[in-house]
Design a protein that fits this description.
Elements lengths: L3 E11 L4 E6 L12 E3 L7 E8 L4 E4 L5 H4 L6 E5 L12 H4 L3 E4 L5 E10 L4 E7 L2 E6 L5 E5 L3 E4 L6 E2 L4
Parallel strand pairs: 7-12
Antiparallel strand pairs: 1-2, 1-6, 2-5, 3-4, 4-5, 7-8, 8-9, 9-10, 10-13, 11-12
Length: about 170
């Protein structure tokens, strides 16, 4: 289980006081409310201290980057958060934790593949399920995903039309 998870990508400066726009990869920008640090690497070795986070925009101001010229050097950088800073409720998990979990047919309990990834779509997230040459893109909604747990795997209904030829 990874300790540091992708929070999003820093974009262009906003204004003249070192504020930088942020493309959030989390369920919502509000998830990161109260964050004190973001990390510039997936190992958590280099961090940015958050002085201000504005989830409504979303954007940040970081300590030692309170100038448009300074913060522009961060443009395009991916940033991570420490999962220990955001404990989840019982039964909740991060999508990164489900990658690699087995996938079972919800009706027969037969193993049909593994979760290769999770991607965000327009109206929902999608579980990317792989089994040898077969691949499915399954909406993460109750109609198709009966249950999901990193420990117990995913139980799914793979309806017609969900199989894809896309690589993932």
């Amino acid at each position: 289980m990874k300790r540091f998870l992708e929070a999003g990508r820093l974009n262009s400066p906003r204004g003249i006081k070192g504020e930088i726009r942020f493309a959030c990869y989390c369920d919502s920008p509000e998830f990161l409310a109260g964050i004190k640090r973001l990390y510039l690497d997936a190992d958590g070795k280099n961090f940015l201290e958050v002085l201000l986070y504005r989830p409504s925009v979303p954007s940040f101001i970081f300590k030692d980057y309170e100038d448009r010229g300074l913060v522009s050097a961060l443009n395009g950088r991916t940033v991570w958060f420490d999962r220990e800073d955001f404990p989840l409720e019982d039964g909740a998990f991060y999508y990164d934790d489900i990658v690699g979990a087995p996938v079972f047919d919800a009706d027969t309990s037969e193993k049909i593949g593994t979760v290769a990834g999770v991607e965000e779509g327009v109206s929902s997230f999608y579980y990317l399920i792989s089994s040898g040459e077969k691949r499915w893109r399954v909406p993460a909604v109750d109609e198709f995903i009966v249950s999901a747990s990193p420990a117990e795997g995913v139980y799914a209904h793979l309806a017609e039309g969900l199989e894809t030829k896309d690589e993932f």
